[in-house]
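Example 245, ligand adenine.
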Amino acid sequence: MKFDILTLFPPMFDGPLTESIIRRAVERGLVNISLHNIRDYATDRHRVVDDAPYGGGDGMVMKVEPLAACIEAVKAERPAARVILTTPRGRRFDHDAARELAGYEELIIVCGRYEGIDERVRDLFVDEEFSIGDFVLTGGELAAMVMVDAVIRFIPGALGSPGSAECDSFADGLLEYPQYTRPVEFRGTRVPDVLLSGNHAEVARWRRQKALELTRRVRPDLLHGAELSGRDRDYLTTLGREEEP
Ligand code: ADE
């Protein structure tokens, strides 16, 4: 899968995209990430990439011409690529969106900056806008890194064990159950006995119950969209009863 990232700050991507799982995915040829500096496409002497907003107001707006030139240059190489813009105005990026984007062979991610970008960039070039949450970052670069990371996890072979991304928190609409590793006892706290029992059915049941408990406590909103069995629903009812005075 090919990612082309359009940014005013390519060095920001050193580190997050050059270590660990992403580095291995790149080395194995599963992923190719290219950075493009939008400023390289500004044609004036000072290579200006932003300007004051029409109509007045604070801050600067990213100009359309350098962005248009940069997007067109990259698109010439990747005509089938989907063009994404990172912006707090976008659709919320979540597990399903990451899986969906992993279905594309080529993605072009435009990192917004400053107070915003000229609306004509959206109108003319952008297929979809994504926000990574209801807060405002100083720019779209961190959002792009988050998205690339989450998308790569869905590429077959990118994670150590097959299917890992499908077992994650959110994969079935619930948060993930608690995990433990050695030692069995640490500062008076023990690994739950069921996990040491070797009884796979009991372990699976305990994990499911913990995932339900955790989701209900921390993210009850997720329960509405989760895939729940009759047994899950019965368990949630029991939890509700336990809380009653
Ligand atoms: N740029 C600034 N804030 C953002 C956010 N929350 N998501 C994506 N891009 C952004």
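Summary: The pocket of adenine is lined by residues 86-88, 112, 131-133, 135-137, 139-140, 143 (CB under 6 Å).
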